[in-house]
Amino acid sequence: MPKAFIHEPWRMGPEEQQAAGCRIGIDYPERIVDHLAAAKEARERIYAVRRTPAFREMADAIQARHGSRKSGLARRGSKTRPRTGKRRKAGDQRSLDL
Q1: Is the pTM of this model over 0.85?
Q2: Spatial contact of 10 and 27, defined as CB atoms under 8 Å apart
Q3: What is the DSSP secondary-structure string of 14-75?
Q4: Are 12 and 5 spatial neighbours (Cβ–Cβ below 8 Å)?
Q5: CB 3 within 8 A of CB 20
Q6: Which of the residues 7, 10, 39, 42 has the least number of beta carbons within 10 Å of its own beta carbon?
Q7: So where are the chain's domains?
Q8: How many whole angstroms from its chain centre is CA 5?
Q9: Cα–Cα distance between 59 and 64 in angstroms, integer?
């Protein structure tokens, strides 16, 4: 088996298989999983679920219960309260005398 194809022997052409004495499907098994196709299908299925209204409701409930108000995500369905208190200026740094 040539080193270039040691991890992906199914990419060898018929001439290379003949030269190596390793015919895919006869002397060496076909690959079981096409990783690129499997990953594409998994992504499509995940995104299909994420586009459903039920998923959005669940995500909003999790954010409302566990999320930080400072996360930058806007809350859905409820009005946010304005911040109260004084905001410090950029140069208003605290210091410790050690």
Answers
A1: no
A2: no
A3: HHHHHHHT--BTTTBPPPS--HHHHHHHHHHHHHHHHTSHHHHHHHHHHHHHH--TTSSPPP
A4: yes
A5: no
A6: 7
A7: 1-31, 33-65
A8: 28
A9: 9
Question: For residue 50, which amino acid is it?
Answer: R
Closest CA to 8 of 26, 22, 38, 43: 22
Q: Give the three-state DSSP class for 11.
A: helix
Quick one: pLDDT at residue 2?
Answer: 81
Q: How far apart are CA 47 and CA 21, in angstroms?
A: 44
What are the per-10-residue average pLDDT scores of the chain (98 residues)? 86 91 90 93 96 93 81 60 62 71
Tell me the three state secondary structure of residue 7. coil
Residue found by looking up tokens 């605290």 in the block: 94
